[in-house]
Design brief:
Structural class: alpha+beta
Radius of gyration: 20 Å
Distance between the termini: 14 Å
Strand order of the largest sheet: 2-9-4-7-10-11
Shape: globular
């Protein structure tokens, strides 16, 4: 089997550019799965039925879709799928901003934006109320001729989005190769342990001891900080690593299952289908259909 690679898109952004804005109307999506070194905010309207793949997330979108991606390694694509719309609009903004510790974006007014940019390394999907809040600004962005005012309006879009609730990460941390991070040292300690030992059996009692808590107190604490119980968190992490191997390797599904901590192949197949909506072999086949040999 040939090694299938994701296209690494060369961005039109040049050295001193800040924004690249593409506002297109089209009848179909044809560009293959890709990644790129710059950040991207992608808005799609009037394209219900299009399939959006971001990392190991695979979803069919509705009338409106808005996603922010800030990882150079995270592959993504919008596929035509069952969309029959003849008037699709896509507004893509690629941007190159420094959110490092010594940049202006590390200052207090930009705290919510910086946090959003970190979260978007897994791909961040925005709810409808957030889309409606910035729709007018997105709609007119490409018509602003003055670069400064275009940048000013785009910053206000990012800022408004960073204050919205209900955003949702798309790819799993393990698939997107994103380091875990948390405000709580105890949660971070447990997450790091799981990340290093996901192939092995992990017991609740051991994690509770690691956090210096009783099992029942730790269960409540962990769910409060992660939104999931320990078992679901471990399964999601294992599935992320398994999905990455399905995409990047030619290993058999059985090999991948056991190497990611599932000690039973039928159990792996059942859990994978329940969480991803398809079997591991279907996931691999569908993903490779969207890729191109380079």
């Amino acid at each position: 089997m040939e090694d299938l690679k994701v296209i690494h898109e060369i961005t039109p952004l040049m050295g001193k550019d800040v924004l690249y804005i593409a506002d297109r109307r089209k009848k179909e999506f044809t560009y293959p799965i890709h990644n790129h070194s710059v950040y991207e905010l992608n808005f799609v309207e009037h394209a219900p039925g299009v399939r959006r793949i971001v990392g190991d997330s695979n979803e069919v979108i509705g009338e409106y879709d808005l996603v922010l991606i800030t990882s150079a390694d995270l592959e993504h694509v919008w596929e035509q799928n069952v969309c029959t719309s003849r008037d699709i609009r896509e507004v893509t903004v690629q941007f190159d901003l420094d959110f490092g510790e010594n940049s202006i974006f590390s200052r207090n007014p930009f705290n919510s934006m910086k946090k959003m940019m970190m979260e978007a390394r897994k791909g961040l999907c925005f709810p409808m109320d957030a889309i409606m809040k910035v729709y007018q600004k997105l709609d007119t962005l490409s018509s602003i001729k003055d670069g400064f005012y275009a940048f000013q309006q785009f910053l206000s879009i990012l800022y408004e989005l960073s204050r919205c609730e209900g955003t949702r990460p798309l790819a799993t941390s393990s698939f997107a190769k994103v380091d875990v991070a948390s405000d709580s040292r105890r949660v971070l300690k447990v997450k790091n342990y799981i990340n290093e030992n996901y192939k092995n059996e992990i017991r609740l009692s051991d994690m509770a001891s690691l956090a210096g808590m009783s099992a029942s107190a730790f269960s409540r604490f962990f769910k409060l900080h992660t939104g999931r119980n320990l078992t679901d968190y471990i399964i999601d992490m294992r599935l992320g690593y398994a999905s990455r191997l399905l995409v990047d390797s030619t290993n058999s599904i059985a090999e991948i299952s056991y190497s990611c901590g599932f000690n039973n192949l039928s159990n792996f197949n059942r859990i994978f289908r329940k969480k991803k909506g398809c079997s591991p072999s279907e996931f691999r086949e569908n993903y490779h259909k969207t890729r191109i040999i380079v």
